[in-house]
């Protein structure tokens, strides 16, 4: 019989695969659009590395090796259910954000040729729905993986990326779009609709 722990791990692996399947075509298309401004820095690379490590590498290592076993705890159906719902919501927001951004999308802090300020779809509610999706993924990981190290790693990786980058990203958008972006900031929250 399949354990509930295995179900959570399976959902997490499927979610990670789905994340990459969603991202790949947008990444390919973005390489064809010229970058006209960048704020990429070593700290940006550290944030990206922390997110990848905490939300993919470390949990995958924990699943494959079952290390550290001392950090395991019993899983249950409600936590796997919450984790699954969170991960599905994350992937939906992730896909919608990519679709709305289109040619404006970039993995790092870059302004593309003919960059536009997007305010539709999830951008009508929050300025940074990609980070919203990462937060939902990290929460999903916490509930899906019944290991304290693997579970909390995603939240730590997300936090390093988000808090190390969001202020720079908003300054870049203000520099590029000026009053238009400032007005947009006044009508939206950063990553959690109506709250933050």
Describe the structure.
The structure is a single chain. This protein has a two-stranded antiparallel ribbon with strand order 1-2. With 196 residues, the protein is mainly α. It has helices at 4-30, 42-65, 77-101, 129-144, 148-177, 179-187; strands spanning 35-38, 110-112. The chain starts with a helix and ends in a 9-residue tail after the last helix. The chain has one domain (4-187): Four Helix Bundle (Hemerythrin (Met), subunit A). The model has no long low-confidence stretch (mean pLDDT 94). α2 (42-65) runs antiparallel to α5, α3 packs antiparallel against α4 and α4 packs antiparallel against α5.
Estimated structural class: mainly alpha
Task: Give the biggest beta sheet.
Answer: 2 strands, antiparallel
Q: What is the third-level CATH name, the topology?
A: Four Helix Bundle (Hemerythrin (Met), subunit A)
In which order are the strands of the major sheet placed? 1-2
Transmembrane segments: 6-26, 46-67, 73-94, 148-166
Protein name: Protein-S-isoprenylcysteine O-methyltransferase Ste14
Main location: membrane
Membrane topology: Multi-pass membrane protein
List keywords for this structure.
4% strand, 67% helix, methyltransferase, protein C-terminal S-isoprenylcysteine carboxyl O-methyltransferase activity, 196 residues, two-stranded antiparallel ribbon, transmembrane, 6 helices
Q: How would you briefly describe this protein structure?
A:
The chain is mainly alpha-helical and 196 residues long. It has helices at residues 4-30, 42-65, 77-101, 129-144, 148-177, 179-187; strands at residues 35-38, 110-112. The protein has one domain (4-187): Four Helix Bundle (Hemerythrin (Met), subunit A) (Up-down Bundle), CATH 1.20.120.1630.
């Amino acid at each position: 019989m399949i354990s509930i722990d295995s179900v959570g791990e399976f959902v997490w692996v499927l979610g990670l695969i789905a994340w990459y399947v969603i991202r790949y075509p947008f990444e390919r298309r973005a390489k064809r659009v010229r970058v006209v401004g960048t704020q990429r820095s070593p700290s940006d690379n550290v944030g990206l590395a922390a997110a990848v490590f905490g939300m993919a590498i470390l949990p995958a290592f924990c699943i494959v090796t079952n290390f550290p076993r001392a950090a395991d705890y019993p899983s249950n159906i409600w936590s796997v259910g919450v984790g699954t719902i969170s991960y599905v919501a994350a992937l939906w927001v992730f896909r919608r954000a990519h679709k709305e951004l289109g040619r404006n999308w970039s993995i790092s802090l870059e302004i593309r040729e003919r960059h536009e300020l997007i305010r539709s779809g999830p951008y009508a509610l929050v300025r940074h729905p990609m980070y919203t999706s990462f937060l939902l993924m990290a929460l999903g990981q916490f509930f899906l993986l019944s290991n304290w190290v693997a579970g909390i790693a995603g939240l730590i990786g997300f936090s390093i990326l988000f808090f190390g980058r969001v202020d720079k990203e908003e300054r870049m958008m203000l520099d590029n779009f000026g009053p238009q972006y400032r007005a947009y900031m006044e009508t939206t929250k950063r990553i959690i609709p109506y709250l933050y």
